[in-house]
Amino acid sequence: MEMSSDRALVKKFKGGDPEALLAIYRRYRDYLLSVAMAMVCDLDRAEDAVHDVFVSLAQKRREFRFRGNLKACLAVAVVNRTRDLLRRQSVRAAAPLDPEAEIVSASVAPEQTAMLNEQCRRLAAALGQLPPEQREVLVLRHKCDLPLREIAKVQQAGISTVHARYQHGLNTLRALMNGELDDDTGR
Amino acid sequence: MTPVDKIIRALSQFEAKAPPRLDERVREHVYEASADAASAPVARTGLRPWRLIAGSRIAQLTAAAAIVMAAFLGLHMGGLDGSEVYAVEQTIDALRKIETAHAFCTGWQGDRFEMWVKPDPATGANDFICLTEAKGDSIMVSTPSVSYHYLPGRNYVRITRGRQITSDLDLARMIESLIQEADKTGDSVEIGRKVTDRHGEVVTLRRTGPTCESEAWIDPRTKLLLGLEYTRTSEPGELVKRMDEIRYNEPVPEWLLRFECPENAAIELDGWGDLDDPNAGIDAAGLNDERACRAILTRLFEAVNAADLDGMRRLIPVASQWDDETLVSAVWDVIGKHWDDQTPGVMAYEIGAPYRDKGCPLGVLVPCVLTDHNGQRFELTLIVRFREAKGRRTCVIVDAWDGIRPRLGPMHKPQPARAPNSPFQGPINAAGFTSVSTVLIVPTNEPNKTTEARIHVGVQAMRKFIKRKSVERSVEVMTDVEALQADLSRSAIFVYGTPGGNLWLAKHIAALPVAIEPGRITADRVYEGSDLRLITAWPNPQNPNLGVVIYTAQRAEDIIGINQVFHGPTDFLVARGNTVKRTVNYVKKDGRWTFE
After folding, report:
1. Residue B68: left if φ>0, alpha if ψ -120 to 50, beta else—which one?
2. Going from the N-terminus, what domains does chain A have, and what CATH number goes with each?
3. Cα–Cα distance between B453 and B294 in angstroms, integer?
4. What is the pLDDT of residue B550?
């Protein structure tokens, strides 16, 4: 398929062409999965988030609007979706544990580990210990390259609150990682 | 590379690869969803009560209120023909679009005041409020960053950090607030129509509860709120607070928006922390202003760069009240916009010479030029206050000037307070408002000195209460002997004591159409009993334009706690214990007050 611009693909997709949406998916799937993975630290849920965003786009193509950068717009959608998933997870946590579910979860762990290098694995583990709001700010800032002003809009919070979350998140992450990162951070 | 840089780099390089199973899943479901969407009918947009709410910026911040509103309107849609509901719905929308509101109000005490409100378009909260009493003897200006209470009569200004007053409702979301409150308290809310003398036919939104009732009037044509009446029903008599008229989108007079403390005004600072805390700030002994400012600001910038929050708290008293996150946010608000996201702080700073500005009564202003990590220079002016602590000259940092400067500026000087130029007409609760000066007169001639002492304690508590409720009021307690010699022609007077125990009362009670005897009180009728209390309003004998309230009884022990008897909206009452037996208004004719 010819490499079209994001805008042209969106136009086609809004015109009812699902292939255009799949082309967008293929273009950004790895990036979006990384964003989701950094947010939920779980491959299954990360896949769910990316999947749900694209299915939702297909369902609501008429209402879909975006301004500026499609990549950032999709990343924000994924982050929003992961937020919903995390919220649902926190509600479910109160329910009795299903032993079978635990086995299934344990069975995918090696595969998840294989998807990430050691550095990313450690980072994912540390990110998982941050409060979701702080994790979200860090991911949106450094993974999605959104300025704090835009993040404030996404989080519907004041810029100072977002900045405080950013600072706290970074400090906590630094304490958690505590020299575990190499200077030549590579994949 | 610093640890933070490593983390940031690791975050940006954090990557996962999508497995083929995700591709298959997305492909399959995207096709399904696209097919469904193509065959689904386009939703028709009908009248839905929540559509305005959902689309509003305000509602994003007050989601709970919006849900309540939606539920409320939904519940009542069926019982009405829809037009009233639609009017209320449109009112919500119309109120969100107002730029200013100028309301003419009547307070609990029948006092008249004007209120200017400028809502924040983003939140709907009152961004600016100004209250001016009709007599012009009190002006309150409240903004999110700073509030002023100015008393021209005393040339006194109280400056409070943040919002101090005054409206317990945000005009731009008044309807939501009203319904939300009703939902919390379980009050009923009804929408209807009626014809009023003042506004003609209106749509009404009426809330009824066990202790209060309120009714909002909505113009059926413009959909704007015309007025509001709030009635307290829990107490005898009728207590009403009202917005009689509201004018929208009038330009706020410049002199109201900008405030400058008048020269030589007595200034009280509130909310900037304990500026007199001897442990705060730095020692400035032996340093001139400029050197002291340099020293304290150097310490501040070093603390900012080292992220030393406790160090900042020691220099800025207001910060000692904040937790870490609030302090970081506050610093961000002031200089954070110039920070690089990763490396907060300042690369370089130059501290200028301090100067005084007549618009800033908080301290001297010190201009600084800071350089951020991108090499950009920006200005910041801080307020430094010098004070004496532990016998030494010290200084603290009060605040950043830039944050509050927009709120300060040349202000039109309001007219000085005028004494009322018409005779006092009652009722009891209006007496205290006839002057900003109040004198409480205590007895010295009660037969039982223990009881008399307890009366004095109660009156002192009353003095504190009045002072707390109204900072502008000058309240003085004096004995009956002192009062007999004093010039009270500029004061409202509260008198406590039995007719024989309070000498000031003994002198003046003869003018009242009342006879207090051990076994009865004779007034508009004869009240039998020996444990009766009497509270009455009366004109000040030295100035009939001002009011007097007399708290008396047959026995001195009944004076104790007499303020707990409900009184206020009438001229005269007789009570036994805290139970009111009868309330009466005097007939006022030719300057004479009688029961006829």
Report:
1. alpha
2. 1-93 (1.10.1740.10), 117-182 (1.10.10.10)
3. 56
4. 95
Q: Which residues of A touch B61 (CB under 8 A)?
A: 156
Domain boundaries, chain B: 47-121+164-251, 280-407, 428-594
Outline where B470-592 has alpha helix (H): 480-485, 503-508
Taking chain B, what is the end-to-end CA distance rounded to the nearest angstrom? 94
Give mean pLDDT, residues B570-577. 90
Per-residue pLDDT at B136 exceeds 60: no
* Confidence (pTM): 0.37
Give me the count of residues in chain A: 187
Domain at B280-407, CATH class: alpha beta
End-to-end CA distance of chain A: 30
Burial class (CB in 10 A: 0-12, 13-18, 19+), B81: exposed
B467-526: per-residue pLDDT in tens? Answer: 766 655 678 899 999 999 998 988 899 999 999 999 999 999 988 999 999 999 999 899
Q: pLDDT tens digits for A59-72?
A: 877 777 766 678 88
B16·A187 Cβ contact <8 A: no
- ipTM of the predicted assembly exceeds 0.90: no
For residue B270, what are the CA distances in angstroms to A99, A186, B144, B147, B258?
Answer: 60, 55, 15, 10, 19
Closest by CA position to A33, among listed A13, A18, A53, A56:
A53
In whole numbers, what is the pLDDT of chain B averaged over residues?
75
- State the pairing for strand pair B526-528/B520-522: antiparallel
Out of A138, A164, A183, whose CB is closest to B11? A138
Cβ within 8 Å, pair B8-A18 = no
| Least confidently predicted of A73-77, B368-372, B444-448 | B368-372
The pLDDT of residue B459 is 93
pLDDT band at B455 (very low <50, low <70, confident <90, very high): very high
Residues of A in contact with B1 (CB under 8 A): 183
Q: Write a three-state SS string for chain A.
A: CCCCCHHHHHHHHHCCCHHHHHHHHHHHHHHHHHHHHHHHCCHHHHHHHHHHHHHHHHHCCCCCCCCCCHHHHHHHHHHHHHHHHHHHHHHHCCCCCCHHHHHHHHHHHHHHHHHCCHHHHHHHHHHCCCCHHHHHHHHHHHHCCCCHHHHHHHHCCCHHHHHHHHHHHHHHHHHHHCCCCCCCCCC
Total Cβ atoms within 10 A of residue B330: 20
Question: Using alpha carbons only, how large is chain B's radius of gyration in Å?
Answer: 31
Report the C-alpha gap between B45 and B51 in whole angstroms: 9
What's the CATH fold of domain B47-121+164-251? Answer: outer membrane lipoprotein receptor (LolB), chain A (2.50.20)
Residues of A in contact with B30 (CB under 8 A): 18, 21-22, 25, 54-55, 57-58
CATH of the structural domain B428-594, one choice from 3.90.1150.10, 3.40.50.1970, 1.10.3210.10, 3.30.379.10: 3.30.379.10
Put simply, whether A40 touches B (Cβ < 8 Å) is: no
What is the distance between the alpha carbons of residues B471 and B165, in angstroms, rounded to a whole number? 13
Q: Tell me if residue B130 falls in helix, strand or coil.
A: strand
Integer Cα distance of A152 and A76 in angstroms? 12
Give, for B298, the enclosing helix (H) or strand (E).
Answer: helix B289-305
Whether residue B575 has pLDDT greater than 80: yes
On whether the CB atoms of residues B352 and B362 are closer than 8 A, the answer is no
Contact between B76 and B182 (Cβ < 8 Å): no
Tell me, yes or no, if A167 comes closer than 8 A to chain B by beta carbon. yes
Read off the pLDDT of each residue in B355-380 and give the average, rounded to a whole number: 76
Confidence of residue B596 (pLDDT cuts 50, 70, 90): confident
Binary contact (B17, A143; C-beta < 8 A):
no
Neighbour tally for B20: CB within 10 Å: 7
